[in-house]
Amino acid sequence: MALALPEVVEELLSEMAAAVRDGARIPDEHLSSLKFVFGSSAIQALDLVDRDSVTLISSPSGRRVYQVLGSSGKTYTCLASCHYCSCPAFAFSVLRKSDSLLVVEEIAGTVR
């Protein structure tokens, strides 16, 4: 039985989260797979997570908002529910080139 892309990504992120929990280094083949699936956005998202620049804010109703501290020092808001971010990179990468905000949400939510 063939796996669909969401199941492959979920398995990949689960393996990465397990490595982080165990204090191990994330294998290079996992990082390459992320880049293959999500493009260059994956590397940028991992960098933000590594720099502790992503904060998840959850409401009692279950809504989630990510605040991201950009390299300029400005804080941007990412709305997971509608795949939107207020940063200029989102406007360029996602709206013009159809990249995905899901990579930031998936990496930040699963690896942390």
Explain the overall architecture.
The chain has 112 residues and is an alpha+beta fold. 52% of the residues lie in helices and 16% in strands. The chain contains 5 helices and 4 strands, in the order H-H-H-E-E-E-E-H-H. The chain has helices spanning 5-21, 28-38, 41-50, 88-97, 102-111; strands at 54-58, 64-69, 75-79, 84-85. The chain has a 4-stranded antiparallel β-sheet with strand order 1-2-3-4. The termini are far apart. The mean pLDDT is 80. It comes from Mesocricetus auratus. This is Zinc finger SWIM domain-containing protein 7 isoform X4.
Could you write a compact summary of the structure shown?
It comes from Mesocricetus auratus (Golden hamster). By secondary structure, this protein is α+β, with helices and mostly antiparallel strands.
Oligomeric state of shown chains = single chain
Percent of residues in helices comes to 40-55%
Number of E strands: 4
Residue ranges: pLDDT <50 for 5 or more in a row? none
Proportion of residues in extended strands: 15-25%
Total helix count?
5
What about the largest sheet?
4 strands, antiparallel
Counting helices, strands and paired strands, the structural category is alpha+beta
Shape category: globular
> Which strand order do you get reading across the main beta sheet?
1-2-3-4
User: How far is the first residue's CA from the last residue's CA?
Assistant: 31 Å
- Integer average pLDDT: 80
Rg from alpha-carbon coordinates? 14 Å
Topology pattern, helix = H, strand = E: HHHEEEEHH
